[in-house]
């Protein structure tokens, strides 16, 4: 018996392939360490649409609400590009985030030393990089009403609404300050307070929460466009970056690319604590469904495996086990294990998705 | 007598210093080439607020509407940070853009070979970089209504509205396709059609304009967050990037920083043709007012001088003269002339703002 429950949603494209490697890691923790999980699996995205005509069924949604953590692979693919907006694969993901109220999206951008040369940036600019972007995930312009395309006079008009309440900003800010306390105690908040009233409110509320509750954390503010520049110029100046849904979407991807390989990067999306004290939580790799390499054994499972490491740390309070898993990944990379996406100009023979999973499990056991 | 009119708005901070160097270039074209300009000068931003209580007077606005081209230095500074939103220095700039209806913001990101090592990116990733971002500048979330901060129940709510009409998208798209025809004939349009209806309309209208009028131009689409990643990963894949106001704000700054020095980058903001055939136009450096170095002779005037080169090309159809000025800038850089912002790790003695202006004029004459 275990009191740790996981719902695995492999999704589309390479999702199922990389999730199979996470299964090996989960199994190893159970058999070798006695750390067991109650694992169930279901459909999301295009896979759910194909089976049920919707990118996420109500039954799957209900299951996601019950478990301690959801592990998601990836959604989307060219087969679904022409679907109606309301049933696009991404809507399944957005529904999970919205109904589980996963308001804090944690996007680490870490540069493994063995891979620093894969970055388009100079080694000295990125080696040792370790920043965390906290993107507000359940509000802002991707959710605000009114929205849609309608006709005015004789032309179409497209509308979306950027809308933030004080409470939405406050809880994201608290998550960022809490994170910073466990890291290097610095938060930089990014918005466009110079041209957007929602940015002015964002800055005011962050300042108020800081003054009232987190005076020990170093706080700075930056306009989001300058933030994009500073990430490119000198990313190591940051510890935790706090920003809204839309700016976080762009800035977290910009930061991700600084590290040189998206195949490496995990993410966590956290909400409020449940009855058992664990936060509502979903973990997923940053990379997409990569339809171009689906089914070829070329996918890099590391981002998905590191997402499970984040689950160990943030959902199950297994920080030591998370670190052990992260060290195992670092170890196999230092040993020279490379999937196809990590082939440098020096060449070499890539290992398969499955071989990378096996290597990580072997390193865990060593 | 000349039929070429210029309104110079030096603005705040280093604005007046860099504009003084542009004056030298303008004077040289007049005295050495017989290419003369009717030049007037006025206030904008904090300087206008200090004199008149508003960041742009109606009289200055009227003058800007009459001239062929406005040259603007920079606005803003810490003295104005606590002003009411409605009279912040940036509002003066936004008013100019809005009332002149300067819908096409051209942001070149070019990497001068002599300065490629200043980039945080590897030399091979950026050397020879020459991309142009066309940012829609008069609509979108920085202008849409409703906007503001109000109270709902017992909490504040901040709202902005992303709103694009078909016509607004169409004219920006046409500008991008026209630009591409004069460059490498490729346009990549960026939005978030996967999660925003305004992005869906954007993509649809761009496709329609392309099919109807610009089938000879190569068109691709990219989600804006992926665009940020691709700019960092491999910026030379792009020719013209077409995007909206907010995404363009972030992406153009991200692209600017790839080149390694913001002090180098000009911009143009163009509107519809006037009665004389010239477009409504404003030219300005990308850099800000840099209050930390104001009045010390440390500012780099090159961005402002290259902005005047864009004026020569886009307002006055003086492409050869624009190229001559750009070559002069390239020449002084190749000769080793460096303002303080261009000091590399190898050291050396920086020249002043004024010395850089003199060097460029001397190179023009040589
Ligand atoms: Mg994104
Ligand atoms: Mg900007």
TrEMBL record, chains A, B:
<feature type="binding site">
    <location>
        <position position="253"/>
    </location>
    <ligand>
        <name>Mg(2+)</name>
    </ligand>
</feature>
<comment type="similarity">
    <text>Belongs to the isocitrate and isopropylmalate dehydrogenases family. LeuB type 1 subfamily.</text>
</comment>
<protein>
    <recommendedName>
        <fullName>3-isopropylmalate dehydrogenase</fullName>
        <ecNumber>1.1.1.85</ecNumber>
    </recommendedName>
</protein>
<dbReference type="GO" id="GO:0003862">
    <property type="term" value="F:3-isopropylmalate dehydrogenase activity"/>
</dbReference>
<comment type="subunit">
    <text>Homodimer.</text>
</comment>
<dbReference type="InterPro" id="IPR024084">
    <property type="entry name" value="IsoPropMal-DH-like_dom"/>
</dbReference>
<keyword id="KW-0479">Metal-binding</keyword>
<feature type="domain" description="Isopropylmalate dehydrogenase-like">
    <location>
        <begin position="5"/>
        <end position="360"/>
    </location>
</feature>
<feature type="binding site">
    <location>
        <begin position="77"/>
        <end position="90"/>
    </location>
    <ligand>
        <name>NAD(+)</name>
    </ligand>
</feature>
<dbReference type="GO" id="GO:0051287">
    <property type="term" value="F:NAD binding"/>
</dbReference>
<comment type="function">
    <text>Catalyzes the oxidation of 3-carboxy-2-hydroxy-4-methylpentanoate (3-isopropylmalate) to 3-carboxy-4-methyl-2-oxopentanoate. The product decarboxylates to 4-methyl-2 oxopentanoate.</text>
</comment>
<feature type="site" description="Important for catalysis">
    <location>
        <position position="142"/>
    </location>
</feature>
<feature type="binding site">
    <location>
        <position position="97"/>
    </location>
    <ligand>
        <name>substrate</name>
    </ligand>
</feature>
<feature type="binding site">
    <location>
        <position position="225"/>
    </location>
    <ligand>
        <name>substrate</name>
    </ligand>
</feature>
<feature type="binding site">
    <location>
        <position position="249"/>
    </location>
    <ligand>
        <name>Mg(2+)</name>
    </ligand>
</feature>
<comment type="pathway">
    <text>Amino-acid biosynthesis; L-leucine biosynthesis; L-leucine from 3-methyl-2-oxobutanoate: step 3/4.</text>
</comment>
<keyword id="KW-0963">Cytoplasm</keyword>
<keyword id="KW-0028">Amino-acid biosynthesis</keyword>
<dbReference type="GO" id="GO:0005829">
    <property type="term" value="C:cytosol"/>
</dbReference>
<feature type="binding site">
    <location>
        <position position="107"/>
    </location>
    <ligand>
        <name>substrate</name>
    </ligand>
</feature>
<keyword id="KW-0560">Oxidoreductase</keyword>
<keyword id="KW-0460">Magnesium</keyword>
<keyword id="KW-0464">Manganese</keyword>
<dbReference type="Pfam" id="PF00180">
    <property type="entry name" value="Iso_dh"/>
</dbReference>
<feature type="site" description="Important for catalysis">
    <location>
        <position position="192"/>
    </location>
</feature>
<keyword id="KW-0100">Branched-chain amino acid biosynthesis</keyword>
<feature type="binding site">
    <location>
        <begin position="288"/>
        <end position="300"/>
    </location>
    <ligand>
        <name>NAD(+)</name>
    </ligand>
</feature>
<dbReference type="InterPro" id="IPR004429">
    <property type="entry name" value="Isopropylmalate_DH"/>
</dbReference>
<keyword id="KW-0520">NAD</keyword>
<dbReference type="InterPro" id="IPR019818">
    <property type="entry name" value="IsoCit/isopropylmalate_DH_CS"/>
</dbReference>
<feature type="binding site">
    <location>
        <position position="135"/>
    </location>
    <ligand>
        <name>substrate</name>
    </ligand>
</feature>
<dbReference type="GO" id="GO:0009098">
    <property type="term" value="P:L-leucine biosynthetic process"/>
</dbReference>
<dbReference type="GO" id="GO:0000287">
    <property type="term" value="F:magnesium ion binding"/>
</dbReference>
<keyword id="KW-0432">Leucine biosynthesis</keyword>
<feature type="binding site">
    <location>
        <position position="225"/>
    </location>
    <ligand>
        <name>Mg(2+)</name>
    </ligand>
</feature>
């Amino acid at each position: 018996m275990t009191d740790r429950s996981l719902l695995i949603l492999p999704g589309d494209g390479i999702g199922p392939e990389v999730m199979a490697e996470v299964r090996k890691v989960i199994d190893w923790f159970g058999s070798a360490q006695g750390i067991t999980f109650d694992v169930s699996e279901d459909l999301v995205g295009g896979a759910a649409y194909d089976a049920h005509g919707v990118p996420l069924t109500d039954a799957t949604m209900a299951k996601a609400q019950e478990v301690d953590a959801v592990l998601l692979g990836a959604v989307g693919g060219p087969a679904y590009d022409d679907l109606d907006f309301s049933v696009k694969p991404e809507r399944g993901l957005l529904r999970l985030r919205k109904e589980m109220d996963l308001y804090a999206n944690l996007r680490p951008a870490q540069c493994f030393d063995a891979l620093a040369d894969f970055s388009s940036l100079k080694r000295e600019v990125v080696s040792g990089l370790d920043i965390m972007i906290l993107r507000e995930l359940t509000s802002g312009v991707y959710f605000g009403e009114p929205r849609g395309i309608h006709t005015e006079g004789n032309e179409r008009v497209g509308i979306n609404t950027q809308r933030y309440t004080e409470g939405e900003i406050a809880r994201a800010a608290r998550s960022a300050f809490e994170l910073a306390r466990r890291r290097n105690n610095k938060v930089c908040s990014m918005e466009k307070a110079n041209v957007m009233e929602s940015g002015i409110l964002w800055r005011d509320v962050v300042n108020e929460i800081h003054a009232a509750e987190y005076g020990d954390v170093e706080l700075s503010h930056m306009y989001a466009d300058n933030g994009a520049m500073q990430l490119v110029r000198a990313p190591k100046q940051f510890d935790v970056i706090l920003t809204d849904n839309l700016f976080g979407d762009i800035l977290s991807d910009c930061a991700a690319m600084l590290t040189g390989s998206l195949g490496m990067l995990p993410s966590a999306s956290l909400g409020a604590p449940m009855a058992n004290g664990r936060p509502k939580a979903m973990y997923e790799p940053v990379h997409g469904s990569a339809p171009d390499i689906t089914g070829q054994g070329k996918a890099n499972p590391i981002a998905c495996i590191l997402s499970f490491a984040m689950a160990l740390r943030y959902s199950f309070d297994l920080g030591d086990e998370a670190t052990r898993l992260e060290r195992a990944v670092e170890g196999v990379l230092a040993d020279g294990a490379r999937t196809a996406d990590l082939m440098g100009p020096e060449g070499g023979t890539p290992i398969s998705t499955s071989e990378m999973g096996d290597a990580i499990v072997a390193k865990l056991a060593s």
